[in-house]
Amino acid sequence: MLKGPLGFSFAKQIVSNRTLYRWTKPIASWYVDLCGYRKLGLRYDDLSASSFPCPSILAISRLPNDEAYNRAWRHRVGMHQSILHQDLPKAQWLKPEDDVRYLTPLIQEVEAEDAERRELDRIEVTRKK
Amino acid sequence: MLVQRRALVALRAHSSRAYATASPSISVFAQDAGQPTSSITVLVKAGSRYEPEGYAGIAHVLKNFSFKSSKERSALRTIREAELYGGMLSATLTREYLAITADFLRGDEGFFLPLLASSVVSPKLISHELTELVWPNVMVDSQSAVTSGEYTALELAHAVAFRSGLGHALLNPPHAHAPAIEAVKDYASKAFTQSNLAVIGSGLSQSKLESLASQHFAGLPSGSSLSSPAAKYFGGSTVSHSLHPTLFIGYGFAGAPSAGLATLAAHLATKPRLPWSDGLSPLSTLPSSVHAESILLPYSDATLFGVLVSAKDSAGLKQGGEAVVKALKEVAAGGIKEDLVGRAKARAKFASAVVEEGKAGVIAKGAAQLEGKTWNSLVDEVEKLDVKALGKFTSDLLKTKPTVVALGDINTLPYPDELGL
């Protein structure tokens, strides 16, 4: 898996290195702004719907009720703005600090469960000596 | 007689048993009769009796949360590893206790006790496990239970006889909604404390179990034991619609089961001890379409005794009910023969001795230790009972208010006064 929130990424290493983080942060912010999803009121995790079939569907079903409702609401607003070919008024843009990864931990949890199941299915049992 | 008693005394002497308490305050009880398999039960005082107000059915949910994810291992890993060891994991719920049990081959306690402990010490109780794994099973339990007239009759009988506490429903009703995970966590945090549970083992030594328990249950908060108001018997009657005509006639007691009650239950028990025989119970003469069976349900501070009658229709129930009342009045009047009393006593003693011998007996003794009581075998007490004492006991019993529950076609169901009560 190369794309999406679970894709190949150096983010961890970059964030842990202060100098590197200071250098890359402006570029990252510029890129996220360019993507434009915040101007439609969406969060980054709202974009990962159908691109990750199994784990993300199970993860979405595990969202708390209010989170699931807000996600659906943001999708509707975003879709409506998309039909109008308009961005939201600037006051309603998603603030960077509100762009929380609310779904990624759940997807990771589901993936870990799948990995554990695969591991247990292929386990080789040896008798204790 | 002497031989029986000697054998029981020998059993009690042979099995290494000890009443002791491991580190801080966990009650540990083990009995080893040298069998090839071992069994450990974590007995938690978390039955439906202790459910807080407004949280009916929470004990049933907690039961189905057994062996789900804990901090040490996931639900899947628990099952797969137990399978590799050839062990059997089970959780059972009664009105008073939640029993989390592992049965395994001798010597595997080093794996199974930490597994049981993790279910109690560090359960994760995750919200999505409730919706994906636990609640569907809770609903299957409930839906299969309500298809039995016997279950519904006993539920109503407990409610009528004891009202709150022991009268709480054992399972969720099939139309219930899943509780919030916070409610489950709250009940679990109150129930899973050192003073509220006992670790009971059969097939392993007391010292072994004590050392393992003190090691793996140390992380449990000491807490206080859950409490419920002392059981009080009320009695009364109720009818309810059902597709399975069932009648319960019984009496409740606040107190441990007595010899008289055990003998009376044995006298009315119809299940034959020999194949192809009807037995000598006064209820054996009923037509084959009417089935009656006596029940005796002991609790820590109360007992419910009665007869369950099932039939095709209300007329059958009435016939069965009248036979039960007639049989009880006959015993009360002292009108039964000496040899029938002898039969009932022998049967009661056998039932009591069988329980004492098996795993159920070990758990009963461990539960008594948890409650701070001593466990008494009924065998010796039943031995002392004679026809006169049984008659006196039964006539006193008949003076108290009966518990009568009738299920079936409401228009035609029999009421207590129509049955001669």
Structural class of chain A: mainly alpha
CATH superfamily of the largest domain in chain B: Metalloenzyme, LuxS/M16 peptidase-like
Give me the strand/helix succession of chain A.
HHHHHH
Largest sheet of chain A: none
Number of strands of chain B: 11
Envelope shape of chain A? flat
Query: Per DSSP, what share of the residues of chain A sits in E-state strands of 2 or more residues?
Result: under 5%
Order of helices and strands of chain B: HEEEHHEEHHHHEHEEHEEHHHHHE
Oligomer: heterodimer
Q: Give the C-alpha Rg of chain B.
A: 22 Å
Short description:
Chain B: Belongs to the peptidase M16 family. UQCRC2/QCR2 subfamily. The complex is a heterodimer of chains A (129) and B (421). By secondary structure, chain A is an all-alpha fold.
Secondary-structure blueprint of this entry?
The complex is a heterodimer of chains A (129) and B (421).
Chain A: H1 11-16, H2 18-35, H3 44-47, H4 53-61, H5 65-84, H6 104-121
Chain B: H1 2-14, E1 16-21, E2 27-32, E3 37-44, H2 58-64, H3 75-84, E4 88-93, E5 98-105, H4 109-121, H5 127-146, H6 149-162, H7 181-191, E6 197-202, H8 206-216, E7 236-241, E8 246-253, H9 259-268, E9 291-298, E10 303-310, H10 314-332, H11 338-357, H12 359-370, H13 379-384, H14 387-399, E11 403-408
What does this structure look like?
The complex is a heterodimer of chains A (129) and B (421). Chain A is 58% helix and 0% strand. With 129 residues, chain A is mainly α. In chain A, α4 packs across α6. Chain B has 421 residues and is of the alpha+beta class. The A-B interface holds A 61-62, 64, 113, 116-117, 120, 123, 125 and B 74, 76-77, 80, 84, 127-128.
Give short descriptive properties of this protein:
A: 6 helices, 58% helix, 0% strand, B: alpha+beta, Cytochrome Bc1 Complex, Chain A, domain 1, globular
